[in-house]
Write a structure and sequence with these properties.
heterodimer; A: 410 residues; alpha+beta; six-stranded mixed β-barrel; two-stranded antiparallel sheet; 55% helix; B: 228 residues; alpha/beta; six-stranded mixed sheet; four-stranded antiparallel sheet; 7 helices
């Protein structure tokens, strides 16, 4: 213990006599650690934001989209096919257990006109269950009712952005607007969900039945009414996989797929979507971290450079210490601890700077950032590791000096 | 004083350095015995092997052949870290160029000698500085001390460990005659009062005359031994 204290005092003396140099030595490490912390916090922050957005879409959701269409062996884009139908949705509702709601939907980009104003918007043909399934709430007015749905009423519910674009000065409820070539009556405006992944603020929602009348009716060769997505809610999230399996086999039967054929649709739970997206952002975060780690490496080389100079400059001191009884390993540990302590200090300062930068980015609202303990611990331990790694060779050099020659050096 | 017991016994010591393709033999079979409590001067012209001999005695180097017994223990075949331990515990060096650490105070320089052997004891360090008459200057750095004072700090650094032998390599070589005399009088009084064993390399006959025995070295061989 006493001995360790002695070593630390020795090391502190070595560092404190060259304050400016010590600071410049660790500057590389400071910048490296600070950028690791900042970039990782940005990465983690955006991952969390995306996950939160998905959560706000609703839990226990399973969404089915048409799969890649095949034309003579050429695979088209996923979602480009026209394989899902209203009849599929009805069959799922009737035959698959543990489902609370089924919501087929169709989307189309249409021009909306009110007086002199017009906008192009994504129009979603949905059923009344759609809003509850997707956690979409009404701001003013009302959703369309089951009766209005059944009777293909020409009514529309607007997202907030669409409402303010078309009706900047008036209350949109009860107003009329032209959609394509039919006239729709506005009966409700949604509560804003804010910008984000798949935000309903920019959409318009009408009964799917009305959409199928108003827009050119699209049918499969078998006469099925085509929809672009089917969304299901599962009553019990532990049954999600069973529901997926049951739905898959039902749709495969309905679509007459042979055992060796691929699915002509994609089925995914929200959980899986979240997993996939967080994998993507996780990779991005790693990439950011790797770029920052390179700057740490450069900082480490700087430490090695200075340590080599420092050993050279203190050759005589090493000789004196050896004459006074220091073993090779005492000298070695002195320089190694010195390097590790330098980079550790650099790591701590870097964490402070990185954290402050992350907080600032968050405060300015540029991006949401999250500093997690694991990143901080990792950054600090890596910086100590860099000191040990890059201090190893200079320290070894120092310990190997011949005491007689070292004493003779100037 | 336990005169008569042999503390240093060198038997047929040779030391050879590689010089390019050829070898340079600096010591050619040296036999020396030094008794406990003895004050010995090693003299000789430059290149006679004095410093090499002193380095061997001080365990800073190993002989090429021959045997070296320090306090009846053979040390000529020990490993590097064992030699370091002996240097730390049994040898007190006093160099021509003082070899103090310039950024440390006199006190810290003395304490430095204790870091590798058992740990720092401030009280003992202060006592050692008092013995060389530097009680008033313990907080001074070497640059704030005269040459003679610096050498006295170095002597304090040697005595603080209470070593078996003191080795001094031209201890007055860089001092004016007055400071040199002071340093020599400190060393001789340490010898008189505490019975330290001191081996001194010098080419100043006046300094050598303070010693009990003078060993003359030339071309790596002992050519004369003279007791005073």
């Amino acid at each position: 213990m006493k001995k360790w204290f002695g070593t630390l005092t020795t090391v502190w003396l070595g560092l404190s006599t060259h304050k400016l140099r010590s600071f410049l030595t660790i500057l590389g490490v400071v910048i490296g650690v600070a950028s690791v912390i900042t970039l990782m916090s940005i990465g983690k922050g955006s991952t969390q934001q995306i996950l939160a957005n998905i959560q706000s879409m609703g839990a226990n959701l399973i969404s089915i989209r048409p799969g890649a269409s095949m034309f003579g062996g050429v695979r088209g884009a996923v979602g480009g096919g026209r394989t899902l139908t209203m009849e599929d949705a009805d069959a799922i509702a009737q035959q698959v257990p543990d489902i609370t709601a089924v919501s087929p939907a169709n989307t189309s980009n249409l021009q909306l006109v009110v007086g002199g104003k017009n906008t192009n918007s994504q129009v979603n043909g949905v059923n009344p269950e759609y809003f509850a399934i997707n956690n979409i709430n009404i701001g003013s007015g009302a959703f369309f009712s089951a009766d209005e749905y059944q009777s293909s009423s020409k009514v529309a519910v607007l997202g907030t952005n669409v409402a303010t674009t078309l009706f900047p000065d008036t209350d949109p409820i009860g107003q009329q607007m032209r959609m394509g070539n039919i006239i729709m009556r506005v009966i409700g405006v949604l509560e804003s969900k804010g910008a984000g992944f798949n935000s309903p603020d920019d959409g318009v929602y009408i009964p799917l039945t009305a959409m199928q009348q108003a827009v050119a009716q699209m049918r499969t060769p078998q006469g099925g009414r085509i929809v672009s997505t089917i969304t299901l809610t599962v009553s019990d999230s532990s049954q999600t996989q069973n529901v997926i399996d049951a739905t898959t086999s039902l749709l495969r039967t309905r679509h007459h797929l042979s055992a060796s054929a691929d699915n002509d649709f994609n089925i995914m739970s929200t959980e899986e979507i979240a997993k996939t997206l967080s994998q993507v952002t996780g990779t991005l975060t790693l990439l950011l971290g790797a770029v920052a780690a390179i700057s740490l490496l450069v900082g480490g080389i700087g430490v090695m450079n200075i340590m080599l100079v420092s050993v050279l400059e203190r050759t005589r001191e090493i000789g004196i210490r050896k004459a006074l009884g220091a073993r090779d390993r005492d000298i070695w540990s002195q320089f190694l601890i010195e390097a590790a302590l330098l980079t550790f200090a650099g790591g701590i300062i870097g964490v402070i700077f990185g954290w402050a930068t992350a907080m600032l980015i968050n405060r300015l609202g540029v991006m949401s950032t999250v500093v997690t303990a694991d990143v901080v611990i990792m950054a600090v331990s890596v910086s100590i590791g860099i000191g040990i790694f890059f201090g190893f060779y200079p320290a070894w050099n120092a310990s190997r000096l011949n005491p007689i020659e070292a004493l003779r050096s100037e | 004083m336990d005169n008569g017991s042999i503390i240093i016994k060198l038997e047929n010591i040779t030391k050879t350095y590689p010089m390019g393709k050829r070898e340079l033999t600096v010591l050619k079979g040296v036999n020396i015995n030094i008794n406990k409590g003895e004050l010995v001067a090693i003299m000789g012209p430059s290149g006679s092997g004095k410093s090499t001999l002193l380095n061997l005695i001080g365990c800073l180097d190993k002989p090429t052949s021959g045997t070296y017994y320090l306090e009846d223990k053979e040390v000529s075949r020990l490993s590097g870290s064992e030699l370091a331990r002996i240097r730390g515990q049994k040898i007190g060096f006093i160099f021509q160029t003082f070899n103090l650490l310039s950024r440390l105070t006199a006190l810290s320089n003395v304490e430095l000698a204790m870091t590798y052997v058992g740990g720092i004891d401030r009280q003992r360090a202060l006592e050692a500085l008092a013995k060389v008459g530097l009680s008033e200057r313990v907080r001074h750095r070497p640059i704030e001390l005269s040459g003679g004072e610096q050498q006295r700090v170095a002597i304090a650094r040697a005595i603080v460990k209470n070593p078996s032998i003191f080795l001094a390599d031209e201890p007055t070589g860089q001092l004016d005659s007055k400071s040199g005399e002071e340093v020599i009088s400190i060393l001789t009084s340490l010898h008189a009062e505490q019975g330290i064993t001191l081996v001194l390399v010098t080419h100043d006959i006046n300094i050598a005359s303070h010693c009990q025995r003078i060993i003359q070295l030339k071309d790596g061989e002992v050519i004369a031994e003279k007791s005073i």
